[in-house]
Design a protein that fits this description.
With 346 residues, the protein is an alpha/beta fold. Helices cover 19% and strands 16% of the residues.
Length: 346
């Protein structure tokens, strides 16, 4: 590996450099004990553009090109891997693959054949062996992954529940994803979520209502494809027991008048309409669940109105018949009176 335009400083640094072709430019730099030492067979040490700084840094590299290893045993076992950037104590120590970036003590420690990974932080991606295209940023982040690919973890101990998850993203200290193709933000201690862009932005004409369940999962569902045992809704007379109120939020300095219900009161009427916090306390009313019972109540009222209207129409017809009969009788009575007068005059 030495040849022309290479530099070696330190005991056994670049010790077995390939010197078979004098004048060949290799552009390697080795600083430290056994840095870029290479294979004992100089003919195998053909790598170029490598930089190794530290005891045993890139110590076993042979044909790899364009690698940077800085730190004690950084990328030590690498032989043919290329274009890796490895900085830190024992970072990427067994890496043999290409185009990885490991920054921090023991980052990518077990990485063997995994390619195009970026691990930053103490022991980030420590367990990855063959996973590809992963990005882990933060101390001990992504440590569970060994073979999973296309994952992103940002935050201290941001991790995954299984070692082979794919295409999942987890953000926040101690946050954890537990399925493929999943995004997780924050751990179970997070109790407030802000998204200011959502407040000032607009959405397209085609949109959906989103819901959050008690696990924090956000999504939507309404199609019959996801439902079973579909029946007409039962009686909703309980709806009329709810007490609508006006109120002010204690935290609202502007004291804007609000319209709503009291969660504790709603729980006593129908506990299915409230949500609970992790301590089991009533937290909020699920107003969206009130929509369909209100539709049912409106339908029931409409049926009642239609029945009453039909009865009114029948009574109006009866009344009209009575009036016609009265008019007929009155007409006959007038005729009789007229005849009676005429007979009396004769």
């Amino acid at each position: 590996m030495a040849n022309h335009r290479s530099t070696a400083i330190g005991m056994s640094a670049m010790e077995y450099a390939d010197n078979r072709s004098p004048g060949r430019e290799t552009f390697n730099t080795a600083v430290g004990y056994e840095a870029l030492k290479g294979s004992v067979a100089p003919s195998q040490n053909t790598g170029r553009y490598n930089t190794a700084v530290g005891d045993n840094a890139l110590g076993m590299i042979t044909s790899g090109n364009g690698n940077t290893g800085i730190g004690y045993r950084a990328g030590e076992v690498m032989a043919g891997g290329g274009y890796n950037s490895i900085l830190g104590y024992q970072a990427g120590i067994v890496t043999t693959a290409d185009r990885n970036t490991f920054l921090g003590c023991e980052t990518g420690y077990a990485n063997n054949s995994g390619t195009r990974n970026t691990f930053t932080g103490h022991q980030a991606g420590y367990g990855n062996t063959s996973g590809n295209y992963n990005t882990f940023i933060g101390g001990i982040s992504g440590n569970m992954i060994t073979t999973g690919s296309n994952n992103t973890a940002i935050g201290y101990d941001a991790d995954f529940s299984a070692n082979n998850l794919t295409n999942s993203t987890v953000i926040g200290a101690n946050a954890q994803a537990d399925a493929n193709n999943q995004i997780r933000i924050g751990d179970n201690n997070i109790n407030t979520f802000y998204c200011m862009g959502a407040y000032s932005g607009t959405v397209g004409g085609t949109n959906r209502d989103l819901f959050a369940d008690n696990t924090g999962k956000i999504g939507y569902v309404s199609s019959s494809r996801y439902k079973e045992q579909i029946l007409d809704m039962e009686n909703v007379e309980w709806l009329f027991k709810l007490r609508p109120v006006n109120f002010f939020y204690k935290s609202d300095e502007q004291k804007m008048k609000q319209y709503g219900l009291i969660a504790e009161e709603v729980e006593m009427v129908n506990p299915l309409l409230v949500n609970y916090n992790k301590d089991g306390q009533v937290e909020t009313v699920s107003y969206s669940r009130l929509i369909t019972p209100m539709i049912r109540a409106m339908q029931d009222q409409q049926k009642t109105i239609a029945t009453l209207q039909s009865q009114i129409d029948d009574l109006r017809k009866d009344q009209e018949e009575v009036l016609r009969t009265q008019e007929l009788l009155l007409s006959r009575l007038e005729a009789l009176e007229k005849n009676s007068k005429e007979l009396t005059q004769k």
